[in-house]
Amino acid sequence: MTGFTVLDDPAPPTKMPAVALDPAHARRPHRAPETPDTPETSASAAPTWTPDDGASPGHAEFRFASPRTGLVAHGVRARLDVPSWDGPAVAGAAHELLARAAGARWAGEPAPILVGAIPFDPSRPAHLVVPAHQSWHPVVSSGAPADTSEEGPLPVARPEHALPGRDDAVFRAAVGRAVSRLEDGAAEKVVLARTLDVSAPEPLDRGAVRAAVRRANPDAYVFDVELPGDQGHLVGASPELLVSVRDGVLHSHPLAGSAPRSADPDEDRATAQRLLASEKDLREHAFVTDAIREVLRAYVDREEDLDVPATPELVATSHLWHLGTPLTARLTSGTSVLDVVYALHPTPAVCGHPQDAARELIGSLEPFDRGFYTGLVGWADQAGNGEWAIVLRCGVVRGADVRLFAGAGVVVGSTPEGEHAETAVKFSTLLSALGGVS
Ligand SMILES: C=C(O[C@H]1C=CC=C(C(=O)O)[C@@H]1O)C(=O)O
């Protein structure tokens, strides 16, 4: 265990200031747009052109690495700013903004993309920018085995010896109340989360944290996003792909239903098999795949264009087993990844079912603002391609201070102790990379 301390008196919940950049810094497009003019509407983007010298409030460092490809971006060419943060408004505005940026680029510059993060509450402003600089690179495997069933266990943290195991009575009470409300019929599933505020002896080296979390989680979506204002960096290693779209083909890999990994290979395998057969976890998982199937039906031409396996499979992370279902769809022509992102988000993997009732329970039972936790992080291009992971196994890093987030799906049959233990293990994913778990 290192010198991490738990902050008992946590900072006020992170709020998201609307960032308005000074139009006086406006940079003119280098040449006239090549793309057709798009009419300005009240729901369209108000692109703000800014210098990209890194000194403006739009420095906006963004790192997002899927298991195979890494994207590094920084600087702000334009910021997406829409009056209404709903799917059609965002997708339309993003298209317009990317068309303008494409028209304004120098010869030889790569096609512009949109990068950023979307909060848990999609009606609140997202942090979406067209970066001034972007580069893609292959992710070099660090040698950690990707498939633990074949190659033995990954390093497993022991939460009972570390900070995440600290009792959180408020969370246990919230889970207890949620189960009673579910038993009374208020909803069928709700995902409840908690926070853990820790402080390192000195400012964290986020590059080292990213490398450590990638080593332990070769299949994760590792992100490090500079948030607007002084909100800090959103850093994490999500196991969950909401959607990737390439040339009209969508992949999604929803997860729900979890069990802690064990350092003992026999126990680890037995835990995984128990999870695969757990009625409670299968029920928790089915809410997610059913909801995604229903939404995606509206974005395919024919039922055969949507493939949703009937049963989930096991997915391993450094600390947990999950139930996961790999879904594919051939999208109706003209569908953008952002249309689908906003239509799906938030899924029952992070909110619950039915969505409105679950949101209400979260609002009344969670004593903090989720901000971008259980939101989305990723990128989109002008052709409608993109990749968006759910913001999980993460924290907001400000110098030496980190607010970690972890949640768990609650259904009838869940227990406060079980969900407390599960969230403790979920904290450990990032905390071990921070050096806070022995
Ligand atoms: C909400 C979280 O996990 C979600 C994703 C995978 C499995 C989950 C579960 O089993 O409860 C959650 O739905 C989190 O990691 O904070």
From TrEMBL:
Record keyword Isomerase present: yes
Keywords, sorted A to Z: Isomerase
Taxonomy, superkingdom: Bacteria
Molecular-function GO term, any one: isochorismate synthase activity
Domain Chorismate-utilising enzyme C-terminal stretches: 169-426
Disordered: annotated segments: 1-62
Gene3D superfamilies assigned: Anthranilate synthase (3.60.120.10)
Catalytic activity: chorismate = isochorismate
Pfam families registered for this protein in UniProt: Chorismate_bind
EC number: 5.4.4.2
Listed InterPro entries: ADC_synthase, Chorismate_C, IsoChor_synthase
UniProt keyword Isomerase present: yes
Biased composition (Polar residues): 38-47
Family, as annotated: Belongs to the isochorismate synthase family.
Matching PANTHER family: ISOCHORISMATE SYNTHASE ENTC (PTHR42839:SF2)
This protein's name: isochorismate synthase
Protein species of origin: Oerskovia enterophila
Gene (UniProt): entC
